[in-house]
Amino acid sequence: METIGIIGYGSMADMMVQKWLERGALDARQFMIHTRSDTERLHQLIGKHKDVNICSLDDLSTSCDVLFVCVPPLAVLDVLDQLRPAKKALHIVSVAAAVTLDKLAQHTNQPVSRYIPTLTSAVGTGVSLVAHGKTVGQEEQERLHRLLSAFSLVREVEEGRFDAASNLTSSSPGFIAAIFEEMARAAVRNSELSLDEAYEFLTYALLGTGQVLVKHGLTFAETVDRVATKGGITGEGAAVIQKQAPHMFDDLFTQTMKRYEQLKSQIDEADKHH
Ligand SMILES: NC(=O)c1ccc[n+]([C@@H]2O[C@H](COP(=O)([O-])OP(=O)(O)OC[C@H]3O[C@@H](n4cnc5c(N)ncnc54)[C@H](OP(=O)(O)O)[C@@H]3O)[C@@H](O)[C@H]2O)c1
């Protein structure tokens, strides 16, 4: 039975652990968790699953097979520096944005992979992005794939395309929510609809659209065509989006990519001064 280590127990770690337990993919006894502080979230987990082990960093590196580092990007390298060299093969998996495989490999001799989680895995869906360091073996890759498949589709993407891909897998629920917030507010400004009605109507439209895309295998363009009959009302609205959205989304990519680069420089700087 493999042992899964977790460092940091924030929203992402909680999502993963809860999902593995709920789906029966792993047993509570298989978890070893280390956090720097005692949090309500951790208490709730232990209250529900008494067999989860809370332990020191040293215990983690001696006993785990896979170790998920679930702390903020600027804390990842520090955490790796504190790990004692493992006695057996330990596959380290960092979930942080902007901390590259090269950087990670400079702070540990263990095989390292990156995994970008998505909030939507809390409902058992979404794409988990994965990239492996050079020394990660086939078996380790397969084990990570199996673990993440319990709550997501797993897709491997070269690191050079990781940030753009994260925009579509991990940040996109936030982007989609921001877009629909604006559509709801526009409905209120331009009609007698209430904001609550607008939220409800759009939420179910969003849920249904996702299901139609996946279950019927439709593309976005086909979905537009299905709803927007020639010369109809929907076509008129879709044309407004097709005209104005490219500029907005180009900006979104420019700004987010800039932010990724800033974060990488901050991580480099912090690393130099360490
Ligand atoms: N949220 C997302 O949708 C998302 C998506 C993709 C990737 N990620 C990545 O996932 C990671 C965790 O995100 P999250 O949303 O789970 O964050 P979170 O809820 O804020 O949790 C962060 C965890 O890290 C711990 N921590 C913070 N600073 C630390 C330090 N200096 N040393 C040791 N532990 C520290 C926190 O402990 P305390 O309680 O003691 O502060 C907490 O347990 C980040 O690296 C982020 O880039 C997040």
The secondary-structure class comes to: alpha/beta
**Strand sequence of the main sheet, in spatial order?**
3-2-1-4-5-6-7-8
- End-to-end separation in angstroms reads 37 Å
Biggest sheet: strands, sense, closure?
A: 8 strands, mixed
**Whole-number total of structural domains:** 2
Report the total helices. Answer: 11
How many strand elements? 8
Please state the second-level CATH architecture of the largest domain. Answer: 3-Layer(aba) Sandwich
Domain Pyrroline-5-carboxylate reductase dimerisation: 159-263
Family: Belongs to the pyrroline-5-carboxylate reductase family.
Binding site for NADP(+): 7-12, 35
GO molecular function: pyrroline-5-carboxylate reductase activity
Any overview of this molecule?
- The chain has 274 residues and is of the alpha/beta class.
- The protein folds into 2 domains: 4-156, 3-Layer(aba) Sandwich (Rossmann fold), CATH 3.40.50; 165-267, ProC C-terminal domain-like (ProC C-terminal domain-like fold), CATH 1.10.3730.10.
- The protein has helices at residues 11-22, 40-48, 57-63, 73-82, 101-106, 138-149, 162-169, 172-190, 195-215, 220-227, 233-272, and strands spanning 4-7, 31-34, 53-54, 66-69, 91-94, 112-116, 127-132, 153-156.
- Strands 3-2-1-4-5-6-7-8 form an 8-stranded mixed sheet, with helices on both faces.
- Helix 8 (172-190) packs across helix 9.
- The longest helix is centred in the C-terminal third of the chain and has 40 residues, at 233-272.
- The two termini are 37 Å apart.
- The model has no long low-confidence stretch (mean pLDDT 96).
- Residues 8-13, 35-37, 39, 70-73, 75, 79, 95-97, 116-117, 119, 170 line the site of NADP nicotinamide-adenine-dinucleotide phosphate.
